[in-house]
Write a structure and sequence with these properties.
The chain has 146 residues and is an alpha+beta fold. It is 16% helix and 36% strand. It has a domain of 94 residues. It is built from 1 helix and 8 strands. The strands form 2 sheets. Strands 3-4-5-6-7-8 form a 6-stranded antiparallel beta sheet, with no helix packed on it. A two-stranded antiparallel ribbon has the order 1-2. The longest helix is centred in the first third of the chain and has 23 residues. The N and C termini lie far apart (71 Å). Keywords: Signal.
Length: 146
């Protein structure tokens, strides 16, 4: 009878161990990398800008909304001539609400514009931006930082 008891305990122990191994195989494998992802994290190419529509950081976006609250000034089709550690510059097409007679009823002017991003914070985000249209006067804005 003692031999049978030990055999039952041995079988129960082996079954429990097998169950633990089987269940641990059901969890995610920490070493797997999603399709299309790199196994090593790569740093962005220079400072980033928070997109005020998606609230995600971007590098060299083709469109920037400077007046996020009402979209009163956007620049799209941006071709970046530089994207450095302290400053980024590019050219695109500005869409500016003239707010005449008021912003709700205002008309938009579309013209070429020069974009400049500056003042990188400790998180690597541009915090100031400007768009200069044909009048030569830069419209300056604080940029989103999160």
């Amino acid at each position: 009878m003692a031999v049978r008891s030990r055999s039952r305990w041995a079988i129960a122990g082996l079954s429990a161990a097998a169950l633990v191994v089987a269940l641990s195989a059901c969890g995610p494998d920490d070493s797997t990398v999603p399709v299309g992802a790199s196994a090593t994290a790569t740093a962005p190419a220079g400072p980033q800008l928070i997109d005020c529509v998606t609230h995600k950081p971007v590098v060299r976006p083709d469109r920037i909304a400077f007046a996020c609250a009402d979209m009163g000034l956007t620049v799209d089709g941006i071709t970046w001539t530089s994207w450095g550690p302290d400053k980024a510059e590019g050219d695109g097409t500005e869409h500016r609400n003239l707010c005449e007679p008021n912003c709700a009823a205002g008309k938009y002017v579309t013209e070429p514009a020069h974009v400049v991003l500056t003042q990188v914070n400790q998180d690597g985000l541009f915090t100031r931006g400007s768009a200069t249209g044909s009048d030569g006067k830069p419209a300056e804005f604080p940029m989103m930082t999160r």
